[in-house]
Amino acid sequence: MTRELHVIDHPLVQHKLTLLRDKGLSTRGFRALTQEIGALLAYELMRDAPLKPVSVETPLGTAQGVELDGKKQVLVTILRAGLGVLDGMLHVLPSARVGHIGLYRDPKLRTAVEYYLKLPGGMAQRDAVVISSVLATGGSAAAATRRVVETGARTVKFACLIACHEGIERFHDEHPNVPIYTCAIDDSLDARGFIVPGLGDVGDRLYGTE
């Protein structure tokens, strides 16, 4: 069993995450920082991306370099709070295909209910990243990842801004071979299933709703 967990502890990521936590941050500021962290997450997610050698003509000669081995990335975001992270990742991976999964959490049962699914074709030849804002109870993240795994995607990773131990454990109980990439691991969940201290309701903070 793999159960890979990667905490992105780069100083710039941690600095921006601290700013993002501030409850006094404006909607505009929250949105901008979420996108910036998403872009930085994309760099880490692509650390092991396959490369192939190429040559390119510069103004003064031929240079030997590398390029990504095929444009096979697909970013699958969980609606709606994952959209902010997605926007940042697309700055780094502008050619990536995008999928969307709509889920809401039943408030009594804390189970994920799917209401929307749209994924690119040819998933068996693609490397997928499932994107969420947080990994809290783990139910929605596990359900979304299950849908992507069912497509036979070549590889699957999961990325979020903040996770907690309960969510990590539940996610890896169902998907032990899917690596998790996150910027922080917080202590606990409150009675509503929100991470504490966390970020609050990321969707509301992104879009100025309540």
Structural notes for this entry:
The chain has helices at residues 11-21, 27-45, 83-92, 139-150, 165-174, 202-207; strands at 5-7, 51-58, 61-68, 73-79, 97-105, 112-118, 127-131, 134-135, 155-159, 162-164, 180-182, 185-186, 188-189, 195-196. The strands form 4 sheets. Strands 1-11-9-7-4-5-6 form a 7-stranded mixed β-sheet, sandwiched between helices. Strands 8-10-12 form a 3-stranded parallel β-sheet. The mean pLDDT is 94. The chain has 210 residues and is of the alpha/beta class. It has a single domain, classed as Rossmann fold, CATH 3.40.50.2020.
Shape descriptor: globular
What is the number of independent domains? 1
Secondary-structure element series: EHHEEEHEEEEHEEHEEEEH
Order the strands across the largest sheet as they lie in space. Answer: 1-11-9-7-4-5-6
CATH class: Alpha Beta
**CATH topology type:** Rossmann fold
SSE blueprint:
Layout: E1 5-7, H1 11-21, H2 27-45, E2 51-58, E3 61-68, E4 73-79, H3 83-92, E5 97-105, E6 112-118, E7 127-131, E8 134-135, H4 139-150, E9 155-159, E10 162-164, H5 165-174, E11 180-182, E12 185-186, E13 188-189, E14 195-196, H6 202-207
Parallel strand pairs: 1-11, 4-5, 4-7, 7-9, 8-10, 9-11, 10-12
Antiparallel strand pairs: 2-3, 5-6, 13-14
Helix pairs in contact: 1-2, 2-3, 4-5
Offer a quick outline of the entry.
By secondary structure, the chain is α/β, with parallel strands linked by helices. 32% of the residues lie in helices and 31% in strands.
